[in-house]
Amino acid sequence: MTADKKTKIIKTIKVDVDKCNGCRACEVICSAFHATPKYSSVNPARSRIRVIREPFTDIYVPVYAGEYTPAECAGRDKYIINGKEYDECAFCRASCSSRDIFKEPDSGLPLKCDMCESDPPLEEPMCVQWCLSDALIYEEREEEVDEEEEPAMDIEISLESLADKYGLEKVAEVVNRMSKKG
Amino acid sequence: MRYAETGYNLEIDLTRGNIERVASDPKDTELYLGGLGTNAKILWERVPAEADAFDPENLLIFATGLLCGTPATGCNRTIVSTFSPQTKLMAFSMMGGFLAPELKYAGYDKVIFRGKSPELVYLWIHNDKVELRDASHLKGMGANETRRKIRQELNEPRAQVAAIGMAGENRVFYASIEQGRSSASRGGIGAVMGDKGLKAIAVRGTNDINVAKPEKYFELCQEVLDYIKWRDDHPIPGQIPILSVLGSPQEMAIHDEKWHTENFMWGNARERRKGFWNEDIAKEWEETLESGRTRLISCYNCPLKCGATVNMKGLPTYMMKCFSKLTYTMAAYANLEFGLTIAQRATEYGVDGYSTPQVMAFALELLEAGILTKDDFPGMPEDTQGRFYWLLDRIVRREGIGDILADGTYWASKKIGKGAEEYAHNNIKKHEQLPLKLSMLNPVYFLMYCTGEKINITQIEGQFPQAAYPKREHREKFVKDWFQVPDDRFKQYFLDWEPRGDNANPYYPTPEMACDIVDWQERMHYIDDALGMCAGVSSFHLKPPYHIHNYPSFISAGAGIEMDEEKLSLAAKRYRTLVRAINIRRGMRRKDEAPPADHWKKRFPDLEKKLLDTYYEFKGWNQDGIPTEKSLRELGLDYVAEDFVQRGILTGGQEP
After folding, report:
1. What ipTM was reported for this prediction?
2. What is the pTM of this model?
């Protein structure tokens, strides 16, 4: 092993859409777990997992919040699998201006799944623990990577999106003013 | 700050199109909890006893339960309360699905409708934005179709929609309100919705619901979920499949229908077909279900898959719930394919799956008996299945004979006369019942059939086994992990209960024990109906995850209301008594409290009198079933006592 190689734990949630019963327990417990204080409130609109669900066409897709993106894609995708037509961008994880999921309902700030990072760490993310249908299965594996990247913190992602909206200068100005106020 | 509830109701005056957001009184939550409890208080206060179901003064209340919207598994019921056009009494059907939590997140505990809209409308609630919208383009549209159309025109795929179909619009006395994979079907509340000119409610909410003690509340929820998981691996031995596992009867998962098809009655609740179930039928029905069923599905925040999406050849998909799987099949002496196919149309029309097939079978019996003639059914096909479709189409449109049948078997038989009353034989308080006819009187069930004011046996039974276990060792094993009992004496009742001999039905359980058992079973249902809990994870089941010992903690930690078992039991008794008071004020009396005359073959008039006498006294009611002044005052229902004295229902200052 060379000095700049490191092992990294890859955390995966395997989503078996055929097993999803559409109950949205994952949304419930995700929003409760990430509430401040923990478990103090429930609001699926704040959840970092959303079930795209249409019983009449048998569409059940639990999707996790991924990266924030300032602008939507140049084009949109639409999948048809086994004759079932999925919503536009159904499988996309982005918190994106093209749709209302994965955004804080009050502020519009983006949300991102953090695999329920906590201290002490959980054995499995809460959505997986609460999915008794086994539509969500947690898996970990080790992989060798060149160097570990620092994951972006929540606050960075938020600031980035604010900078996109108002310009970095304006954000810096406000932060400066707030810090002076104490 | 209010916890678990929002503290606000929406008041919608359909006559004027006025919408108001009104704060509710936290004191009422303490005394009546929420859901059914506070609904009863509102109906008592605001609907005159003289008002008919179709008078503008009648209210139609869509309520969430107190704990809906919190992480408590299975807590998703919408409790719809109004007055029934069929029974003339309070109707309080409930539905699961997804509406109640969404309404909470939108910021409301209840939506209270009064008056009548001059034009067909629907209500659109999106957080603070609430509006009545024109629904003239939805007139005559199916319930599922309406839901699709509304989501589309609002461009809100996540809006939850409860809608009526043609039956509700045309005020069929057993019209349902359809929503998600569920429906509020009993008591004809869909007819009241239609009478008010309300086609649907659509809701989208993105606000928080808070709980008072987060860590504690989460711990309670996790315990329940873990127990549900455990129960899944440990079905109760000695029980038929639908009673051994949690959930509504798992009708869409199981193939073996020997028990239902050979123990429930066919046709107009007439014939028991012993030996019906054989290998060929088992194979055919399994193929039908396997090819028709797309997926097993659940209500909001519940792992139990009690429903299914069903797609029968060439028809739009619909969602099947529970025992409607067999009611049409058995009423028409048909096969499962027929039952699942006609249920699609029945769901779009929005009709109750218990009453509707029975009304149609009743009509065909009257034709066979010559009480109705061919002229009453112009153009009706010759085959039974074709006749069922023909009748269904006419009932929901109130066309010809359909107009008479749309009032249900009780009222239809009065109109038809010529001895038709004999054929309306399976009713309690004018309401069609499950097609069950048994031999030996069961004292516990006798009391439940007589006095259950939801007028539906599944909405009062559950905690206590339906029949004695033959072997004492099995009984001993059963009571071992029966921690849900309020008191150990219930274990003894069961241990000493024998299938034959001195300690058998009808004289055992004794009237005193029967009162105790019925009271416990009913109490758990009433608590569920106030909290918004599905009976499928609670009161309908033996050994459920929710019970009298953990519910007080759920209420304390969830809603922030100090609660213990005694206080909770008292609250449940308070609004249960209030429901009775509402019905008493509308004329219900002891004479109305009887099971269908042919429900049991072996009847015991003296014992039955003793049972009812004992139960009324146990409940604090006089011998006519009226709550006494003393018991009303003990429950803090002085306002009811005063009203009763004023009306001469009770004599003031005297105690019987």
Report:
1. 0.95
2. 0.95
